[in-house]
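Database export, one record per block. Field names are fixed; values are copied verbatim from the stored entry.
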Amino acid sequence: MKYILFKKEEDDDKEKKMNSLSLKHLNNNDSVQSAKKTVHPSQKEVFVKKWIDYSDKYGIGYLLSNGMYGVYFNDTSNIVMGGNASKIYYIEKKAPENKNQVLAYTLDIHPIEISKKVKLFQYFQGYLNPKGNEHENVEEINESNIIYLRFWIKKSRCLMFILSTKNIQVNRFKNQKNY
C-alpha cells in the first residue's frame, strides 16, 4: 500500500506568516523551493496508518500515525481517543452553525445516547490494536489538538481520507481485481 499525502491549500494567515518567515531566513545559497517545504517542528504530518471499513452498517475505524484512535460513523460523528486511555472525545456537526462540537467524556461515563457508539468504538479499537500495545507513549490530547477524520471516500482503485488538519491522504490499491 502506498501513502500519498497532500496539504490542502488555503489562504490562512498563519501559513502565510510562516512562509514569509521562512523566506526571510534563507541564505543566499538556499532556493525558494526549499523554503516552501519548511514545516514548523510541532506540526508533524499525521496520516491514517490502519483502518477497518464497516461502513455498510456503522462507519470506519482508524488508527492515526500519532497513535490516536477514532471512528468516523455513518452519521458523520466521530469518537477519538489519544494518550489518556479512559478519555474520549465525541465530535458531531451542529446544523445551525455547521461547526463541529467537541465533547469530552470517559469510556465509563457518557450520555446514554452515544452508548452504542462508545461500544462500537471499543470494538474497532480492539480490532486495530489486538495486542493492546501499539503506541503506548502517545501524547495527551485535548480539544485544541484533536486530529480526526473529517471525510473519506472509497473508489474502485483508491481510498481517500481528509483529516481535520486539512491533510488529504490517498491510498491506492495494488493488484486489486473487481469481480
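Remark 1: The chain is about 15% helix and 35% strand.
Remark 2: The chain has one domain: 2-8+47-170.
End of record.
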